[in-house]
Give the backbone structure.
Amino acid sequence: MSARRLAVLAVLAVLGVLGVLPAHAQTTYVAFGDSITWGVGDDPNRAEKGYPPRLEALLQQRGQTADVRNEGLPGETTAEGVSRIDKVLIAGDDVLLLMEGTNDIGNQNVSNETMAFNVDKIADKARAQGLTVTHATILPRLNTNFDARNLVTGSFNGLVRDLAWSKERRLADPFEVFYRLTANFGLLYYDKLHPNTAGYDVLARAFADVLTSADTVPPVTGRVEPANDDQNVPADTPLRIDLYDFGAGIDVTATRLVINDVVVETPLTGNSRKLDIRYDPPQPWKGVVRVTIRSRDLANPANILDREITQFVAAGTTFLRGDIDRDGRVDGADLLIFAPHFGAKRGESRYIGVADLNQDDTVDGADLAVLAASFGKTSF
């Protein structure tokens, strides 16, 4: 325990004996996680790094008497967290803030289901000691060596949302908050994985909003089937999407399912906290299927969701070389995607694999020739 925390507890104990403060006036939060909780990438001149000290200040500004203890451990996996949590919790702790899983992503021996199981086990251990638990999604990754498109990360976060809902726990959703910001600016990360100083400010606010009941996040998805980027999906596969809102609730009347830019009618079951969206295709799936959800919540002002949720490829679909956007036709749209990456080599920031059409680790004239040979042709 830090000297600062000991001093605070001692003062509170004296004030409690004197009757100056009511019992349990302070809420003690335990921020548990890996290097992102610890504060890697933060301003080196800060004495206390990461989101926990910022969160403590925000909660105090919003009227809470709060102590937020930083129990982040760089490099930790969810399995290691299951063992460490027993050594971290102490008498008087009130709330566990649990954001774990980033270091598991990329380890192909650990499934998302195993990660979610470990996270639940950590939470159960905290609950057994009397703490309430606030789950948190993990941050999106940008230009990393694995999961740069956030397919695995997004799927894991869906399971975290499922877990929080099923166990009736609070959820902070940094993934959703960061995803919207990085989609527009893309500069919040120090190493394309950890936040920088501004990113830690954003992360702290994401937690503070949830802990003070400020709703700033739109409806979010849990389990999605078929999953994003699934290939060879049987043509009669039903579509399943779980939609959650951990704040004011979903505006059910404003929720629409959009498939390949066409609004489709389908029954919505559930309530404003969780909607089950199920769709049986009246005709077999063909080619690339793009699924968008349009919705909003009941907050004032409303938080809007209008985003492609999943894109999958029906079985039997073939693509022409040069069909970079996979819309079934090689055209100017593919050329526009290709052009900014011309001249890039693998390992450089401008390189993307989909533009390296002959897979020789360089986007050059040979790839342009491949695209030109199919230009104007359609495959489905």
